[in-house]
Design brief:
By secondary structure, the protein is α/β, with parallel strands linked by helices. It is built from ten helices and nine strands. An eight-stranded mixed beta barrel has the order 1-2-4-5-6-7-8-9, surrounded by four helices.
Length: 271
């Protein structure tokens, strides 16, 4: 029996976890879940975000917060990210073939942008799955808006892929910083969305942000919507797309298929 201490979620120390992570991809332990995005004005289904999960052989489902930093530190995120990209595109193509033509978003680590191979990985995934580039949204941290990554981002934009900045927080980040970038979408940070109900300042910031975004132009997506009050406030401020537990938790693809069927039947809204 190992005497190594365990982390709060039951996983052993970093060395053991890294050893497990190094074979997790080979053993098909990683999988994707998908969280719906909803048009706040029409209630139409607007897309999904693909999110990485780890089905640990003894500990069950592990949250990405408990293993993605280790993937980043060891450079394993490049291989896992390539697998996630191909898997998300394949699933998006399957939905597309069923008549559900909506975007699929996927988070990309800055580590993936450090090598010249990332654009090739994107090209190969799109070609192998026949998924339209215009329906693939790649999400980046704002730190990715670094001159060292500029050529890759521009090349992705030219290929037809849409680019998003994730976890954008008005007041801490300036929208003007994105004016010269190839970014198409900004996703408001869930912590900022949580402050809307209690802060008139937050609502004012959203209003200013939306007005500036119209000029650039950029699409605004609100992450982490938890209740109808937040939804209504964002709708009043003309935010386009919402995502969060108020609409749906993330689900595996088979559950999203059922969601799509129910959504189409009961909402009467286009997909």
């Amino acid at each position: 029996m190992s005497n190594k201490p365990e982390s709060p979620n039951g996983l052993a120390t970093d060395e053991v976890r890294l050893a497990e992570l190094s074979v997790a991809l080979e053993n098909d332990e990683f999988f994707l879940v998908y969280q719906p995005e909803i048009d706040l004005h029409t209630n139409a289904f607007a897309g999904v975000e693909a999110l990485l999960r780890w089905r640990h052989p003894t500990q069950g489902i592990v949250s990405p917060d408990n293993f993605v930093p280790a993937l980043e530190d060891q450079g394993l995120i490049v291989a896992v990210g390539s697998w996630a990209l191909l898997t998300a595109c394949a699933q998006g193509s399957e939905w597309h073939d069923k008549g559900y033509r909506f975007p699929v978003s996927l988070n990309v680590s800055p580590r993936q942008l450090e090598g010249p191979a990332f654009l090739t990985h994107v090209e190969e995934a799109l070609e192998a799955t026949r998924f339209p580039a215009s329906l693939l949204v790649l999400e980046f941290a704002q730190t990715s808006l670094n001159p060292r990554y500029a050529d890759q981002l521009v090349a992705l934009k030219k290929r037809g892929v849409r680019l998003a900045i994730d976890d954008f927080e008005p007041g801490l980040s300036q929208l003007s910083d994105l004016e010269a970038s190839p970014i198409d979408i900004i996703k408001l940070d869930r912590r900022f969305i949580a402050s809307l109900s209690a802060s008139d300042t937050a609502v004012t910031l959203v209003h200013t942000l939306v007005e500036m975004a119209k000029e650039l132009p950029l699409q605004i997506v609100a992450s982490g919507i938890e209740d109808d009050d937040q939804r209504r406030r964002l709708q009043r401020e003309d935010v386009a797309i919402g995502q969060g537990f108020h609409f749906s938790r993330p689900h595996e693809a088979v559950e999203i298929d059922r969601y799509l069927e129910d959504f189409s039947i009961f909402s009467g809204k286009p997909l």
